[in-house]
Amino acid sequence: MKHRYLPMTEQDQQDMLKTVGLNSIEDLFQDIPEEIRFKGDLPVSSALDEYALTSHLSALAAKNANTDQYPSFLGAGLYDHHIPSVINHVVSRSEFYTAYTPYQPEISQGELQAIFEFQSYICELTGMAVANASMYDGATALAEAGSLASAATKRKQLVVSAAVHPESRQVLHTYAHGLDLEIIEIPAKNGVTDMEKLAKAVSGDTAAVLVQNPNFFGSIEDLAAIGDLIHSHKGLMIVSTNPISLGLLEAPGKLGADIVVGDAQPLGISSSLGGPTCGFFAVSKDHMRRMPGRIVGQTVDHNGKRGFVLTLQAREQHIRREKATSNICSNQALLALCASVYMSVMGKQGMIEVGQLNLQKSHYAAGRLAGIPGVKLAFTSPYFNEFVIQLPDGTSVSEVNAKLLQKGYLGGYDLGRSYPELQGHMLVAVTERRTKEQIDQFASLLEGCL
Amino acid sequence: MIQEKALIFELSHPGRIAYSLPELDVPAEETASLIPASMLRSEPAALPEVYEVDVIRHYTELSRRNFGVDNGFYPLGSCTMKYNPKVNEDVARYAGFAKIHPYQPEESIQGALELLYQLQQDLAGLTGMDAVTLQPAAGAHGEWTGLMMIRAYHESRGEQRDKVIVPDSSHGTNPASASVAGLTTITIPSTDKGLVDLDALRAAVGSDTAALMLTNPNTLGLFEEQIQEIAAIVHEAGGLLYYDGANSNAIMGITRPGDMGFDVVHLNLHKTMSTPHGGGGPGAGPVGVKSRLVPFLPRPFVSQTEDGSFTLAGGNDQSIGRVKAYYGNFGILVRAYTYMRSYGPEGLRRVSECAVLNANYMMKRLEPYFDVPYPGICKHEFVMSGTPLKKYGVRTLDVAKRLLDFGYHPPTIYFPLNVEECMMIEPTETESKDTLDAFIDTMIQIAKEAEEQPELLLNAPYDTPVTRLDETTAARKPVLNCACS
């Protein structure tokens, strides 16, 4: 058969088989026992020519409501921010996207420097000393942070706030089962971690407290107080953060965080049904050699010229095998590149401005929505670009969202999905992409749905 | 000489901007009235201040200092650096795929769920497994997911089995994943033919065996001919068989892990299914299982309801839980599905045939010049050793560095660990005979250079943006960011 990706002609095949000393293609597989050779038609979907292929996939894509057509008030960990045009142009450079992990630094300086700059950006935003090259996503980064804290403190207990993203906590539970770690969950009160219950739970057995800021409800936690509490027991504070909030909010590193993780999706990465995004992972200097994943360092070449290499590899699976700090091998380099380009575009001033736009628009929206009869803000804690509204008793958020969808809007997250006590509560996200007109329209549509 | 490249931070000029944001169209409140001052940033993050042309020129220059498959031949063994089709990139960027949220009402993402469902079916068919989860983000993530299911399976039967057996030629991720799953690794030696030593395996299995992890063809590029017997030994001991799918490019349509006796399989879609490696990721590592492991699959997965619509079913009570936020690396899954549909069943088989013939052709032609420890037939990749060059003071590393001057990405070197001065070469099916011949001729030339002018290799490369880098100092005195503030 001929195919546009396959160069081997009949003549090539004959010539090559002759060199190898075989008569047929079948002979190449003579070492596979007859009984396990596959016979018949492989049960996979049929082949399509390129035009039929793009038509088929366009049709599938058209069945989905996309956020360019449907103004979205849905966040819950994935946000509808503006993605500057230049990002796609940079990550479409195939020198970047068709390369692998930079094992040969002499011909991979572009990727290595881009990662070094990514690490620098993450350190700047989070206020931490060291960052790695990226993780699969924010959820697995949080789980790996728990694993690091356990190894560093030689303790087996992790205390996690219920105001951490429910899916991150689920992933944490899965990892903890593998690593034989105990997880204690602390409920939220008024939209933030219940400090009294946290104080009671934390002890000299606690490896770390894991919190999110802004948390899953959008509220801002008192990180300094949480840090003081866990540090008094010689445990670590792990903070999962939304990086786009850090133009406005204090860097977790300045508030006592020992490990800062999060998902870089808000920094120029499309939501893409939740993946691929990009986890980030930053630590204080003490924990540098326990970090999972790839790390790029600066050095010089034989001529004294600045260059970059993968470094501290003695932590990693290809050297340490079962004694590695993590099993992670590939990361999310191309998405880390998106985030780097985003931060280059935004710069010092843009990160502040985009934070302000999110803050102001979300507060305007909260005022509008709380003005609907029967609707109120669930919590009084300060928040960044996401907040919780309580709908009238007996209202089903999923039914409201189905009606909003028919009107061309994507409503907020149904908190009853993850918090049984929050039936009838909607988590509403408002980014810089939402106009006053859309917010007003959303408010009046929501009112009409109730 | 190519100049040093400035860091983006070094291009900063206060007052320049590269962003364009909407005007604030709602009444502005005082920031301090919304958020307590103690929670606000005390000093701005020291990000660079550049304009858009700086951004584009900076990253374009960086890209020119990078080598990808589109730049040239990239025979990096075990990584399957095949061509990344462009149509896949277009499709993944359709707004209906790129701009959707996993928490939208299910009726508004039916196209996405249909694609995922069909991909689950196709991957199950390809590997001979009963069900597939698309959640894992990468191969190692898939390994760990599979091992967690194996662990849960044994625990559900009231058995304490915590040993994972791996051959000495296995990928480093195998034992590392076992550790993260709370299991202990036993490494067994390979025979002098490069295959699993059955006697060593028999001695290693027992009532504590959780699983054997195997790559087949293995990392030497050899098919484990006694796979049925291997499976029988492990199964009779009560253990399960885990298939590391890193080398699946050798066997599509030719043989299936499910038919070989494997219970769990992961595939690296960024290898076999052509999704781009992205400079180190993102990948995708779906895991397929036989029916007895279906109850333990991660939550959630896509299923079809009676009315024909698609849904993210909750999953079974015995599920190991969630392994990643949301539903896997969807954008990568879209590319993989597009790839599989571009070939169909016959095409995928042809992919493996071409990949295997290419590897055998290269091995045969290079055999006279390097040491090929496992002659005969290889699968999609093969190993050879640089030991014949040691007498000239030249090592495999030097050969690899010299290849850079000829515009090639070198093979994987010093892996697997059981071959001295190893070079692991995987040409893939998307390279032409002309490309292979040119590379082979270069390798022959380098072997000759090693004999006649070894210093030429020892100081290589010459034509790259930097020469060899001081990795020792990088690790001893780490400089891991620009420390701008």
From TrEMBL, chain B:
Cofactor field: pyridoxal 5'-phosphate
Gene3D superfamilies in UniProt: 6.20.440.10, Aspartate Aminotransferase, domain 1, Type I PLP-dependent aspartate aminotransferase-like (Major domain)
Keyword vocabulary terms for this entry: Oxidoreductase, Pyridoxal phosphate
EC number: 1.4.4.2
Transmembrane spans: none
Record-annotated Glycine dehydrogenase C-terminal domain positions: 352-452
A single MF term (Gene Ontology): glycine dehydrogenase (decarboxylating) activity
Residue ranges occupied by any Aminotransferase class V domain in the UniProt entry: 151-278
CDD domains per UniProt: GDC-P (cd00613)
Residue list for modification N6-(pyridoxal phosphate)lysine: 271
Chemical reaction(s) catalysed: N(6)-[(R)-lipoyl]-L-lysyl-[glycine-cleavage complex H protein] + glycine + H(+) = N(6)-[(R)-S(8)-aminomethyldihydrolipoyl]-L-lysyl-[glycine-cleavage complex H protein] + CO2
PANTHER family for this protein: GLYCINE DEHYDROGENASE (DECARBOXYLATING), MITOCHONDRIAL (PTHR11773:SF1), GLYCINE DEHYDROGENASE, DECARBOXYLATING (PTHR11773)
Protein's job: The glycine cleavage system catalyzes the degradation of glycine. The P protein binds the alpha-amino group of glycine through its pyridoxal phosphate cofactor; CO(2) is released and the remaining methylamine moiety is then transferred to the lipoamide cofactor of the H protein.
NCBIfam families with a match to the protein in the record: PRK04366.1 (NF003346)
Quaternary state and interactors: The glycine cleavage system is composed of four proteins: P, T, L and H. In this organism, the P 'protein' is a heterodimer of two subunits.
Family: Belongs to the GcvP family. C-terminal subunit subfamily.
Name of the molecule in the record: Probable glycine dehydrogenase (decarboxylating) subunit 2
Organism: Paenibacillus chibensis
Gene name, Swiss-Prot/TrEMBL: gcvPB
